[in-house]
Amino acid sequence: MQKKVEYTEAIKTKYPEQVVIAIAKDTNSKANPITLGWTMIVSGSPPMMAIAVASTHYSVKAIHHCKCFTIAFPSADMADAALFFGSHSGRDIDKFAEFNCETAPAEVIDSVLITDAVANFECTLEAEMAAGDHIIFVGKVVCSHRNTEPQKRLYTVAPGHKMGPVS
Question: pLDDT, tens digit, for every residue of 31-42?
């Protein structure tokens, strides 16, 4: 049975929600990470993934500039990094310089990988679409990486940016 409620009440049932960190280099070749709560696989052949970024965010300009991005699945131990990357703007600071997070060069695209992440996906920009106050970017996965150590993924587990692993 269903009961009609306001959107703001019903949407609270979405947790746990996956967390990803997207990375794109800006016009100064600075790698800019942003924490996002929305990603999805949009094709299996070829492999393609999509992310949604608020249209006012600095990362939109970076993705438009470099035409590629990395999608990292952060580990449960990366909650502080995810919160930092999602609450500071690359317009104002170099997020990787301000928050100690180890990276490695991507192999195929002009980006970086987050070494402590569960997995990283190098994507070339294939399409984009305005969706309300966000832009959906579709990337073709051109190279994938998985952590050699077993890691639990990071999720938003409750409202208020409460993050952690899911059993």
Answer: 999 999 999 999
